[in-house]
Structures are given as structure tokens and as C-alpha cells.
Design a protein that fits this description.
The protein has eleven helices and 27 strands. By secondary structure, the chain is an alpha/beta fold. The chain has two domains: 352 residues, ANL, N-terminal domain (Rossmann fold, 3-Layer(aba) Sandwich); 80 residues, GMP Synthetase, Chain A, domain 3 (2-Layer Sandwich), CATH 3.30.300.30. It has an eight-stranded mixed beta sheet with strand order 2-1-12-11-13-14-15-16, sandwiched between helices. Strands 7-6-4-5-9-10-20 form a seven-stranded mixed beta sheet, sandwiched between helices. Helix 3 links the parallel strand 4 and strand 5.
């Protein structure tokens, strides 16, 4: 039987609250927000949404400033609502109204007065500030769909439908190891951050939430104060964190990268900063779910992964990675097909086989055309990021009347004082030694910082 269609276990059909309750009783577990913290047992015993029964079999949009409040709402509404839409805090105004219309929402649950209520047809319900006694449920539990926004969405948002069993398919119980403290630079309303939250809730341990606009150093200080042991983020998150003095205060037991290509330079930097700590880089996407994790310290992934038989099947077709598993989303809301006729999701990520290993080249949609030759920005950035003195780089296209486009590189220097001709010459020499001439940046610019998307990825610029 194909792994995609194997029956789900009885445990996986339980609501989130029921599954979390089954993993408690092994000591205190905490949810640490930036301004508030509470014991998980308190959240399970009480309610901050006493009117949840009116949302039974309804479509509910969650729109909170606080990630902690969002987590409490998830515990309340999974198994009650027919669909839950997770909105990051930047979703507001016209976009929020559009999402409510697209999802056909009945309710919007918030953690405070909303200034952008105009145009919303859904009923707004405010999460209570304090817990009250939780009554025994009288309504039958239902299977709840979780709707997430695709990462990096611009313009009209795309909603992707997941089930709780699919979202938790890659989570392995940590047994009695409940002293784990999980954290992520991600927002837990995005797929990568949600994975870390679900691990904290279901695999044991506590969780520290990030906060929008919180400086990296301040977040790292909070992580150290709460004794974080397991920490995840994008390579862009990690490059910024590694430049902060507060990184030295952490004593982690496991580090994880996902969301972007993990090139060798960032993997080496993490190994140097934490020589005795396991570092994994995982492949996952909002549509395809969690595909795999690489733990050998090398960029890319072994070609043998394509031969694996188990819950995840992979293939490379037309140069892009395809994934089929129970962890993939079921469908888009009001959009086209998500998977092909065989159930494989085209991730849109280009890969290339070299020496028994596959390497990520970048997104198919991000290719730069230089005189008819294809250039992958991420391939060039991997070279530039490996140059001593470079903290981060971004490669983009600039229009050219001769070749159609030229390659431009923006560089954030590790030491701003070094951002001058000498470092520029070193960068150019490294690019010329590693890349064919048409991939070598025609222009190198130093910048103070590079923008990141709300999902923690390097924001891509187009010509």
C-alpha cells in the first residue's frame, strides 16, 4: 500500500487539546510569551473562549497580535471549528477582509479591539484575558481543517488546507524528556513556526514565542533566560543571530534550519559557534509539508533519499523536487490543483545531482536570464556568503539593453568598517574563481542590511 494512503492511528484522530493532555503529567511545562507566561496545565484546565460552542462546525479566522494567544485559541478550537485560518499579525485591513471572504469565515477571533473591522462580514469574538472554568464538552468532536497562508504571499493570499494528522506526521515523541524548551525565530502562524509549536505541545517540553519587531539580541536574551534547548529558524535568521553577542549566552542541545537553502557557510558557522551541538537542516514547505532532515553537516541531501520507502516519497522531475506523503496539504482554497494525478506536489525548488548528492539551486520562478543563460541567485549567494567578511548577500537582476539582465550583488559586511574596495576585490576574486563569467556579479554594492519577509526569508527583489 502506498504510504500516502495508509490509515491514520487512533491517536492522530484526537483533537489537539486531547493529544496535548495525553502528553502531560511529567512535570511543569510552560508557554513563554514576551509579556506573559503560563503553565500548560492551566491552559488545558481552563478556557479563554467560553463561547467556543457557538463556533461548532463553523469557519473561524484567528487574528492575534500575540503568538501565545494564538496557541491558546488553537487548543480551544481544534475539534470544534470546521476550519481554522491562521493569520500572522501583518494580515489586516483589506487583506484580512479578503481572507475572510475567501475562506467564507463565520467568525474572527482576536486578542483585542480590532481597528480594521470595516468590511468584515464575519462576527468578531475577543479572546478573554483570564481563564475561567472549562465545562465538559457536550458537542461531538469534528475533524478540523487548518488553513495556512503560503510563505511569501504577495497580493491575493493563497490559503492551503492541512489536517492536524498531516501537520504532526513528522513529530516523534521525546518520551520522558520533558525538560526540553523549544523556540523558533519563526512566527508560529507560518508553517515552519507551527511545526515547532506542535513539537513543543505534543513531543513534550515548553515553548518560547518570538514577538514581531523584537530585536534579535533581546530575543536571544529571553531564550537564554528560559533555558532554550531546541531552536529553529531560517538560514537568514541564523546569520543575523550569529552576529549578535547574545548568541554566546545560549546553551542549546539541538539547532535546526529550514525555509531557505542552507549553504555550507551557514552550516560551518553554526558548527564553529556550537561545536558539540547537533545541527539539522530540514526541507519543508507549506504545500508539501515536512519532507526530510539532513544531519550530516553538509549542504544538499544524499541522492539515496529518493530511494527511501516510508511516509514520504520523493522524485526529481524536470529538475524540480516532487514530494508525496500524508504530510502534504490536501488542497488550495478556491485555487488550482495542489498535486498531480499521482499525488506528487511540485515544490518549485530546482535541484541538481553532483557526486551522489542533490544540491538546491533555487526557485524555478527566481531564475535570472543573462543573454539566454540561466542564473540561480542562490547559487551565487552561496559563494559570496562563504567569503570571509561577508555576513549576508542577496543577488538580483538589473535590466541590461545588451544581455537583457546583469547580475547585481548586495552585500552586508560582517564589519561595517570593512565595507570598501579591499573586501569588494576579495568578493569578486572568489566569484571569478568559483563561477562561470556570466554568473559573476557585474556590480557589487554594500548595504547596511537586507530586508526579510515576515516568514523570516530573504526578501527577493526583481528587476
Amino acid at each position: 500500500m502506498n504510504a500516502r494512503f495508509e490509515p491514520l492511528s487512533a491517536q492522530s484522530r484526537l483533537s489537539l487539546r486531547a493529544r496535548v493532555a495525553a502528553a502531560t503529567g511529567h512535570g511543569p511545562r510552560w508557554l513563554f510569551g514576551a509579556e506573559r507566561q503560563l503553565q500548560l496545565d492551566e491552559a488545558l484546565a481552563g478556557t479563554v473562549l467560553p463561547q467556543a460552542s457557538i463556533m461548532h462546525d463553523k469557519i473561524v479566522v484567528l487574528r492575534f497580535a500575540s503568538q501565545l494567544a494564538n496557541a491558546l485559541a488553537l487548543l480551544e478550537l481544534d475539534g470544534i471549528a470546521s476550519q481554522i485560518v491562521l493569520c500572522p499579525p501583518d494580515v489586516q485591513g483589506a487583506m484580512l477582509a479578503q481572507i475572510c471572504t475567501q475562506a467564507r469565515a463565520d467568525f474572527v477571533v482576536s486578542d483585542g479591539a480590532m481597528a480594521d473591522e470595516a468590511g468584515l462580514e464575519a462576527t468578531i469574538v475577543e479572546l478573554a484575558a483570564d481563564f475561567t472554568a472549562r465545562l465538559a464538552p457536550t458537542l461531538p468532536a469534528i475533524d478540523t481543517k487548518w488553513l495556512l497562508l503560503t510563505s511569501g504571499t504577495t497580493g491575493a493570499p493563497k490559503l492551503v488546507a492541512h489536517s492536524l494528522p498531516g501537520l504532526t506526521g513528522a513529530i516523534i515523541s521525546q518520551g520522558a524528556d520533558f525538560d526540553i524548551v523549544w523556540a523558533t525565530f519563526y512566527d508560529t502562524r507560518r508553517y515552519g513556526g507551527l511545526q515547532m509549536l506542535l513539537r513543543a505541545l505534543l513531543a513534550g517540553g515548553s515553548m518560547v514565542f518570538s514577538q514581531a519587531e523584537e530585536p534579535v539580541g533581546a530575543f536571544l536574551t529571553r531564550l537564554a533566560r528560559h533555558g532554550v534547548t531546541h531552536l529553529a529558524g531560517t538560514p537568514s535568521h541564523w546569520r543575523r543571530a550569529l552576529m549578535s553577542a547574545e548568541i554566546k549566552s545560549l546553551k542549546p542541545r539541538y539547532l535546526r534550519l529550514s525555509g531557505e537553502i542552507a549553504d555550507q557557510s551557514v552550516l560551518n558557522a553554526l558548527r564553529a559557534a556550537f561545536p558539540d551541538v547537533p545541527v539539522g537542516h530540514a526541507y519543508a514547505s507549506t504545500e508539501a509539508g515536512v519532507g526530510f532532515e539532513v544531519t550530516d553537516g553538509l549542504e544538499g541531501f544524499p541522492a539515496s533519499f529518493l530511494e527511501r520507502v516510508g511516509p514520504v516519497e520523493m522524485r526529481v522531475q524536470n529538475g524540480t523536487l516532487r514530494i508525496r506523503s500524508q504530510r502534504t496539504a490536501s488542497h488550495y482554497i478556491g485555487a488550482g490543483a495542489l498535486a498531480d494525478d499521482e499525488g506528487f506536489v511540485d515544490t518549485g525548488d530546482l535541484v541538481e545531482a553532483r557526486g551522489g548528492r542533490y544540491y538546491f539551486l533555487g526557485r524555478a520562478s527566481g531564475i535570472i536570464n543573462v543573454g539566454g543563460l540561466k542564473v540561480h541567485p542562490e547559487e551565487i549567494e552561496a559563494v559570496l556568503n562563504g567569503v570571509a567578511g561577508v555576513q549576508l548577500s542577496r543577488v538580483k537582476a538589473r535590466k541590461s539593453p545588451i544581455t537583457g539582465a546583469i547580475v547585481v550583488a548586495e552585500i552586508v559586511a560582517a564589519d561595517p568598517a570593512s565595507a570598501g574596495p579591499a573586501l569588494k576585490a576579495t568578493i569578486l576574486a572568489a566569484a571569478q574563481a568559483a563561477l562561470p563569467a556570466y554568473k559573476v556579479p557585474a556590480l557589487i554594492q554594500f548595504v547596511a542590511q537586507l530586508p526579510m519577509t515576515r516568514g523570516g526569508k530573504l526578501e527577493r527583489a526583481h528587476a
